[in-house]
Amino acid sequence: MPILESELIRQIRRRADRSSGPVRIGIGDDCAVIRPRGGEDIVVTTDFSIEGVHFRRDWHPPESVGHRCLARALSDIAAMGAQPMACFLSLALAKSTPQKWVDGFLRGFLKLAERYSCTLAGGDTSSSLSGIVADVMVLGSLPSGKAVLRSGAKVGDTVYVTGSLGGAAAGLQRLQEQKVPQPARKSLRGMTGSQHFFPEPRIAMGEFLRQNKLAHAMIDISDGLSTDLNHVCEESRVGAMINSTLLPIAKHATLEHALHGGEDYELLFTASPKAKVPVEMAGVPITEIGWVTRGRGVYITDLTSKPKRLRPRGWEHFRKS
Amino acid sequence: MPILESELIRQIRRRADRSSGPVRIGIGDDCAVIRPRGGEDIVVTTDFSIEGVHFRRDWHPPESVGHRCLARALSDIAAMGAQPMACFLSLALAKSTPQKWVDGFLRGFLKLAERYSCTLAGGDTSSSLSGIVADVMVLGSLPSGKAVLRSGAKVGDTVYVTGSLGGAAAGLQRLQEQKVPQPARKSLRGMTGSQHFFPEPRIAMGEFLRQNKLAHAMIDISDGLSTDLNHVCEESRVGAMINSTLLPIAKHATLEHALHGGEDYELLFTASPKAKVPVEMAGVPITEIGWVTRGRGVYITDLTSKPKRLRPRGWEHFRKS
Lengths: 321, 321
Hints:
- Two copies of one chain form a homodimer.
- By secondary structure, the first copy, chain A, is an alpha+beta fold.
- Chain A is 27% helix and 27% strand.
- Chain A has eight helices and 14 strands.
- In chain A, strands 7, 8, 9, 10, 11, 12, 13 and 14 form an eight-stranded mixed sheet that branches.
- In chain A, helix 2 runs parallel beside helix 3 (99-115) and helix 2 (62-80) runs parallel beside helix 6.
- The longest helix of chain A has 19 residues, at 62-80.
- Residues 184-192 of chain A have low confidence and may be disordered.
- The interface between A and B is large, with 73 and 73 residues.
- Strand 2 (32-34) of chain A pairs antiparallel with strand 3 (40-50) of chain B.
């Protein structure tokens, strides 16, 4: 680490907005001070991004690491139907982390923060004995009592997903198989696997679905469809039947990627079969993939063979393998 | 790590309050949902606790690590004059972390959280390739616009500190010199160095000083008096003169410990010389240690030799040594 902590904080402080909108006091005091609008609830999420677990420096350019660690948290805000308000970045760096890496990381992070008017209002810095650790917290807001929860799915609802599934996992697999070198920065957005490097949180879609009272239950697909749909069913005490022939599988991805690959950061929601759910928003498709059923458990059918149980097989830390 | 992430989350969820007071939705959805009271501001802080940097498993019992990582963040809430509302715990564990360690950590964390009615409302879990990493976020609340900032010190103010200084640093030095083995759990509170193992955040004092409009500026002493007083002076664009003969030095601690040792988590504040500041609260002394001066820079005098510049020499990550 080429600079002192105090200098790192000064650099971040210079590049972050001081105070804007609800953020009354940003970086530089013991706490940030945020003024909520009357009649609004605050939603809060935190997400770890750990070198060697969530990213690798030889695979991910620093801009992608900065983008992804904030996108993960923004995606949780989208899944409540909320608007981002402020973010906080805790960043631990090994002494050997090059300043250039830190600059790229902050560039990726702050660019995404700015796009969603999400003021960087605080955080913490530390040295790390081994790899880089980022922990990102985002605060969002929405009208009181209107958060879209995982627990609201009703028997008979239609199950929808936004965008396409499996793209991030397919991109990750290509990295694992070393089929692609670390991409040059400029070509990143266009390439296959950009869903892996620069996933887009579905903030506007989440808010639209909440405002128009379309979604009964909602979650973002961070751990994989199989895991996240099971979360919704458990919290709602219902089951689901998924039609695999309807799944919007991403280009270059397989059914396995779409079912169990995490980090797509699309939204999964359930809505009344009578709800007027648009088929796309701003070019992003919204696809029906199945129904909410009575009883427990998620099943999948290909319309040919017998329906099978779809068990959670998404991302699981601490797994033995 | 003996258990799966999903099981770890289930364990934490079982032991945490689900929803209480302002926490409408706690652990178990994409975000926590918090309902602020009308006319209140939210204050937010985050604090890293990293194995090998902030604690060592051979020095600190797990209860102390859990306690300290929350106490650090609560101390920031105290320094604004706010009341804690909810906390969030991001916890990364090496696969080899014993379940017993996790249990002890959570016991220390949750006991302190309960004491301050600070609901554990969310967080994140992850595996870690090397040591244990905890990142703690706390949200607090206070009446709108009433936060006590670092920037409010006025020329002529008296400078005060709560409690005694240097105790944590003295405890740490004893650990470094291996003069004390890892203490048995039951004897921890009574022993020398308990300020190091179980620091007490000064929540009630911070709130009292804010409610009674006594403190013009306030900070918690986490990095050491020399560093934190310099922060207040920089943000307030003033200087200070400290009288070393007045410093409330902790038992077994030296002047050096009191000036530059961090992690005491006492409050430092400035108040008008006419303010009726109590000399103690609930058995904790409040001590005058100097004055706020015109011009920049912090000076220290022992009333005998010429005043010297007191430069920030507290805790600094990324320092080369």
